[in-house]
């Protein structure tokens, strides 16, 4: 297959054999490459696709376009095969779902993150930006207020902040981040202030600025006319003062104001708006909602695949634990399952096959549960099951069911895949008096596992 040039300008070429899998920008570099990447990311239907540039366009270490290209591009490719292989990996992360939601900016961003599970949405620092930090990718999607979009998606549990990059103080009028902190006179609010050392005459107790005590090359008290020769005997310097040349007011500390360099609004520093700039990633709840096309619906404790959200699971586990602590006839079993690839195994399945099996398991696991049993997923390949009134026999039955699903298309077990289980019963001493998150943390830190291959 040869690259197919699209009739759209910006030198894009298509990647894919049977369908479009991605785009490569060829023959451009520098600012032209930035503009081409922005143009392709603005596409309302393909802005979330893998977009590469040829390696010859890679900017040097000192090039100013480097940070913004890192946000807009998915990397640089050496040729057709390299581009195709990498594009297929992005679609494998989406379980080869070609109909991801892109009907609004929220959906486009979530679909973009779904295809890049190992990449955080990161900002860049730009001194010319009003807020100093900006998200070029979100801006390319047409979003005006990036902070509002990120806060909204985080509040719905679809994305989470991985780390804080910076904590800003913004102007309450225009939300700009370019504030000047200015010392002014607390009396007249003038700028004509200067620092002055005070002197204290021991003879009469008079205190004034050092300039008032100057008498030629000597020091003399302006009140009692005593010559001040020895510090500590005739006088001392109690503190530093400030003086205002406009109103002659003397004060210990000036008033500090924050003046916005963008809109010239003045305010006290404590009234500036605090905003935390961070790196974001898609949550497991967000991943499930994107695959189900439910990016616009209000969050529900029950996800489209029949599992419940981790917060809802933790709440119900806490309730079940409290019930078991107070009523002996009530008991439960908490089960943690981890399905992962053995990296050391030479015959381990490809990441694509494992990703598909994980997706299939998440879609089917609730069918293996009995009435009253609940399950959630805290990360890909990690499941938690709450089994009220269940003992070891019920756990063995469930594990046998799950193991039958870990087979390839020919019915043979997938080589190199581990299904590991950890179990905690409510009568375990570690479970006494613990809430849901504590129980999950204690079980996750247990070293004893049952391995199923």
Secondary structure: number of strands: 24
What is the approximate shape? flat
Query: What is the beta-strand fraction?
Result: 25-35%
Proportion in helices? 25-40%
Average predicted local confidence, pLDDT: 83
The major beta sheet can be summarized as: 5 strands, mixed
What oligomerization state is this entry in?
single chain
Q: Roughly how many Å is the radius of gyration? A: 33 Å
Identify the strand order in the major beta sheet. 1-2-3-4-5
Class of secondary structure makeup: alpha+beta
Number of helices, where a helix is a run of at least 4 consecutive DSSP H or I residues:
12
N-to-C CA distance: 39 Å
User: What are the segments in which pLDDT stays under 50 over at least 5 consecutive residues?
Assistant: 1-9, 344-350
Question: Can you lay out the helices and strands and say which pair or pack?
Answer:
Layout (H helix, E strand, L loop, with lengths): L3 E2 L6 E4 L6 E4 L4 H12 L9 E4 L11 H7 L3 E2 L2 H14 L11 H10 L9 E2 L7 E2 L1 H5 L5 H10 L3 E12 L8 E6 L8 E9 L5 E3 H4 E2 L2 E2 L15 E2 L3 E5 L5 E2 L3 E6 L5 E2 L5 E10 L1 H8 L18 H17 L5 E10 L9 H14 L9 E6 L2 E7 L3 H14 L11 E9 L10 H9 L5 E3 L1
Parallel strand pairs: 3-4, 4-5
Antiparallel strand pairs: 1-2, 2-3, 6-7, 8-19, 9-17, 10-11, 10-14, 10-15, 12-13, 15-16, 17-18, 20-22, 20-23, 21-22, 23-24
Helix pairs in contact: 4-8, 9-12
């Amino acid at each position: 297959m040869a690259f197919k040039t699209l009739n759209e300008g910006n030198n894009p070429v298509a990647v894919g054999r049977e369908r479009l899998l991605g785009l490569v920008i060829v023959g451009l570099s520098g600012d032209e490459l930035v503009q081409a990447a922005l143009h392709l990311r603005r596409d309302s239907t393909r802005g979330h696709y893998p977009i590469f540039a040829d390696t010859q366009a890679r900017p040097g270490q000192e090039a100013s376009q480097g940070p913004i290209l890192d946000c807009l591009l998915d990397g640089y490719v050496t040729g057709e095969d390299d581009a195709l292989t990498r594009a297929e990996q992005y679609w494998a992360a989406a379980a080869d779902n070609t109909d991801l939601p892109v009907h609004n900016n929220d959906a486009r961003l979530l679909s973009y993150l779904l295809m890049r599970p190992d990449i955080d949405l990161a900002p860049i620092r730009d001194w010319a930006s009003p807020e100093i930090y900006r998200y070029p990718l979100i801006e390319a999607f047409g979003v005006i207020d990036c902070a509002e979009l990120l806060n909204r998606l985080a509040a719905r549990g679809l994305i989470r902040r991985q780390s804080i990059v910076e904590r800003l103080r913004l102007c309450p009028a225009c939300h700009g981040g370019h504030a000047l902190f200015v010392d002014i006179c607390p009396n007249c609010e003038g700028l004509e202030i200067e620092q002055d050392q005070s002197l204290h005459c021991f003879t009469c107790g008079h205190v004034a600025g050092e300039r008032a005590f100057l008498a030629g090359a000597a020091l003399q008290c302006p009140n009692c006319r005593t010559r001040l020769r020895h510090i500590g005997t005739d006088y001392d310097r109690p503190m530093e003062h400030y003086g205002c040349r406009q109103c002659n007011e003397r004060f210990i500390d000036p008033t500090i104001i924050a003046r916005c360099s963008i809109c010239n609004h003045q305010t006290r520093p404590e009234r500036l708006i605090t905003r935390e700039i961070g790196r974001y990633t898609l949550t497991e709840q967000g991943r499930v909602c994107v695959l189900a096309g439910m990016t616009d619906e209000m969050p529900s404790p029950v996800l489209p695949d029949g599992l419940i959200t981790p917060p809802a699971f933790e709440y119900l586990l806490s309730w079940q634990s409290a019930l078991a602590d107070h009523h002996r006839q009530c008991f439960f079993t908490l089960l943690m399952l981890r399905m992962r690839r053995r990296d050391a195994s030479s015959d381990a399945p490809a990441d694509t096959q494992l990703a598909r099996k994980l997706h299939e398991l998440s879609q089917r696991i609730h069918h293996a549960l009995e009435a009253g049993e609940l399950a959630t997923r805290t990360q890909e390949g990690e499941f938690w099951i709450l089994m009220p009134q269940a003992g070891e026999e019920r756990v063995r039955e469930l594990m046998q069911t799950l193991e039958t699903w870990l087979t390839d298309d020919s019915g043979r077990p997938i080589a190199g895949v581990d299904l590991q289980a950890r179990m905690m019963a409510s009568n375990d001493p570690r479970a006494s008096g613990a809430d849901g998150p504590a129980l999950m943390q204690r079980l996750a830190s247990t070293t004893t596992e049952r391995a199923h291959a």
